[in-house]
Protein 1
Amino acid sequence: MLAKTSSARLSAACYSGEAVAPNLEELLGSPTGSAPLGASPILLGRLLSPAIVCLEGVPGPPQEYPQLFPEELAALAGCAASRAAQYAASRTLAHQAFRELGVPVVPLLNRADRSPVWPSGCTGSVSHTVSLCAVAVARSTSVRSIGIDLELDTPLSEKLLSRVLSPHEFSALRASERQAGIALPEIAKLVFSAKESAYKCQYPVTQTFLGFHDAECDVNWESETFAIRIVAPSAPLGSLAGEPGAPLPADFRLRGRFSRGNGHWATVVLLT
């Protein structure tokens, strides 16, 4: 049930330690139309270049994944069936991604803060819903950090709108409803996903917790891109711009791409 995207067809030679990090545009690639439906979805994979292994698949019961490590199976103890299926599928995808990169296949476990522990020399991100899982992994010589997110494209509930959107975002998204052709609660779910990807991307670099109101998202519907501005007043985030300990430059943005298909929003943010 797990499907490899076209962007995951790589050569191990691409990942020598001498590789020069590509620029952000090369790594993000370009959207190429609607993602196919069915058992072999390709949403995130089409947003990324072949320099990043991106694997996607439909989760099934944990017993369908006998190749899980004992440590990974132990992490399933007490999990609900749906959560266990998502966890098992994402770990199986991660193992496949490690093989694509030519790195040892090791258990993908979580720290106490729930962030994944990637193999030495690698960076990556995981996301899953009840009907779709994805893993993106790259060599650290090519990508500093990556964040991916999948969300069902149902509207964000009214009670969550004010928790996710700032007043500025409310105004901007109200103005873009006509351009996007969808209602604000649906757009808000995209913004929710974009902020999740941004958080996953920044956290390995800064080790800093950010809430939804600590970041603002500007969406470009024509190019299917977005920019995240960090507005947290005192977080030590200069390392995102390559300046550890320094304030984050006012013009700094985390940039990403998005797509919609197969009942999901998909977003990705990279740091090079």
Protein 2
Amino acid sequence: MIGLPYSSRDNLPEQCDARRVAESCFLKWMITRGDRVIADVLSLKKMHGSFHICDLCHTKFSYVGWSDWYYEIAGHRLHISTKPAWCFDCDKLRSAERLPTVAECEREIADLTQKRTAKGTRLAHPNALRIAQLKLDWTKNRISPSRCIWCGGTNLQYLKTEPRDGLLPFIHPNCGGTIEFSSTFLGSASPTLFTPEGLRQDAKT
């Protein structure tokens, strides 16, 4: 959360009011005390996705493309990269893990090493190189194939995307209609932790 501070006189113990004044990929809040604005606050939304609808059966699907999903590995949290997929276990449009390759991890380590050794260059995160090495070790030791974020199943079919247009229309399995983009949505979400094998830690056993 990013706040724009005001003068020290605004630290007086008076009642404050927070009002949402705009909405996009961020929530913008105007913090007021009495009739005075004392801070503008931007809060990054933690979930965004899109709605899609079948032109034949008119079933509507919600797809969460990004949220607070993390692997918990050796005391660190690694954000989960996902791709849109049809999950045959859920029988729905879902997010599925996009597992990195060993080559991708090695390139990331090489790039970070080069940046660290370059004169006058500092890594954006002090533990970036160590986390990249952790990611490589995890990738080498991962046993399970990619899983559905929602059910943990592996019976998946990845769907085609374009950088500008996102998820492209695709045939609705067991229906024959075409599932197409309808609209987008934004929201908030609490962090969800997953095991190194891609299973939700809060899943019921």
Protein 3
Amino acid sequence: MPNRVIINSKSVNRIRFGYLGLSGSFCKTHPMPMKHEELIAVLTSCAVSCRHCAFACLAEKDLPMMAECIRTDLLCADACELAVRTILGAKDNEQKKILAYCRDICDSCAAECSRHDHDHCQACAASCRACVAACRKYLN
């Protein structure tokens, strides 16, 4: 049985801000508030969940059965990371195009991960569904 990684809110913040190249203290002390911080948090959480799922899938016994799950996990993580970078620096019309793409990829990833009974797949599917909802909220 593979080792389990427990992620608490403190480590998620470390992952979230560390991944973005920001420290938590920067975000708290910077004079300008970050736009769409909640959406960025959901996107980042989804990217982390998808990468975790992809690597956990590689440790499963029936690797060929997990190939599509791994593929969609990696596409979804990339789409979420692109969406974060776009939100941080692009114009609204560009953000909407990327978030629509991200929403669609996350929806596909949620459907694929839902097909598998592994805990990491189910957690990834839930994270993807939350990301789809957050993208829809932003786009409406």
